[in-house]
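[agent] plan:
  1. take the single chain provided in the ticket
  2. run structure prediction with default settings
  3. attach structure tokens to the ticket
  4. add a short note for the reviewer (M.T.)
[agent] executing step 1
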Amino acid sequence: MTEEAHPTATFLQVQTPDVLEAAAARWRQTDALALDLEFVRTRTFYPKLGLIQVADGRQQYLVDPLAIEDLAPLWDVLRDEKIVKVLHSSREDLESIYYRFGDLPRNIFDTQVAAAFLGFGYAIGYQALVRLLLAVELPKNETRTNWTKRPLTAAQLMYAALDVAKLLPAREILIRRLEDCGRLSWVMEECGKLAELSRFDETPELYYKRIKSASRFDRHELAVLRALCAWRENRARERDLPRNFVLEEAHLVKLARARPQSLDELVKLEDIPEPVRRRVGPAVIETIAKAWSLPEAQWPPAIDRPLNAKRYERILEALKGAAQAKATEMNLPQPLLAQNRLLEEVIRCAENDTPLPEELLGWRREAIGEQLRTKAKQMLAEHVLRTTRKLRPMRSSRRSSHRDPAP
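[agent] step 2 finished; step 3 output follows
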């Protein structure tokens, strides 16, 4: 059998501080490193790191974070701006790094992002990308491994090593193609956003903005929703539990709406199960009471509601069509070019003459952002004109009704 049919990788297990320091010394001599992390996060708030894979183009390294407590040599490499860190679908890996080190790596290159700019789809998987670029079929048989369990089998270790073995060759091909079509700078702009701390360093007091129904709350109610979300977020972090293990979102929203002021009032909420009331009742009631008593100056700003569907339906559909047409022309996935959720923001910007949303700046502004705003402004003006024309005969009729009858 060929290597392409059954690929293998040479790897070094890094399980002691001395070996890690020696490996880091080698990594500092290269200009690019492949990186992947294996973790478990089924019953915890924080991801539990099980393995960190690094490849430098010569071999793969499997760093054991359970055996080595001090990973400072690795972190020194990750924050070195001169070394490109190559990952695939990096969001969860970067989040794991953030929670472990309190910061994010510098100089990220995400092969999934790069592939999207070359027409490979919005979120192509690593195995599929390697197959298309390198004609190598990687195994998928260890995707459900518990990476915190020891010892890891030979098959698991090989699978982990292969997860980074082809990242650097794939990046080389992607970069050549991106340079050929003039989109490398776009990819680097997108990858730069991946390492922005604001994506992960969200204070608990801001989590309420993630609640889908938050726009239906008035400012006073939002103060309660904000407080309950912050309470749940803090407790989840303190106890290392998933948010819904502390309090399910549906129950949280119900409590924010009903605002029970006592345990007796809480018992009357049939949608809140008895075990939930018993577990969190006193803390929830106290949180609600404090938030509801805040002066108006401390209430959060109202959240924009979805645009009136009847009034803006034609404009939204036109913007969706324009975005899809442009994406097809550029051979890009539409969500990469302009996600549908941003189109309402474009209409608001056009109506209020405010700047485009941040997500539509940079390369997107030239590619589609200004086009969408111009189209929205044009259609809004046409809507006003049509409305005026419909009202004009009615006004004329009213004026004529007060005239003296013709002789």
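[agent] step 4 note for reviewer: The longest helix spans residues 363-401.
[agent] ticket updated
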